[in-house]
Design a protein that fits this description.
With 83 residues, the chain is α+β, with helices and mostly antiparallel strands. It contains two helices and three strands. The chain has a domain of 56 residues: Ubiquitin-like (UB roll), CATH 3.10.20.
Length: 83
């Protein structure tokens, strides 16, 4: 999943929390996990309208769905390397 660009729109109104969104995305792109070790954890990050990259879950759900422009799934430990 990490590093795989997928141009896909997601209807955020189908989800009611960060957990359901993250689980759905990870399940959606599970084919890219075959080469990954089991037990690897992922973090959902997003780009807001101002162009800043933030960790999903740091703001209330409603604020998130109003400001998200782009989503990215990162393997835990990779968040620190984000510019």
């Amino acid at each position: 999943m990490e590093g795989v660009g997928i141009a896909r729109k997601i209807n955020l109104s189908l989800y009611n929390s960060f957990e359901t969104l993250a689980n759905s995305l990870i399940h959606m792109f599970a084919t890219y996990q075959k080469s990954e070790k089991r037990g690897v954890r992922y973090t959902l990050t997003y780009q807001d309208k101002e162009g800043d990259w933030l960790i999903a879950g740091d703001v209330p759900w409603q604020t998130f769905i109003e400001s998200v422009q782009r989503l990215e799934i990162l393997r835990c430990g990779a968040v620190e390397s984000r510019p």
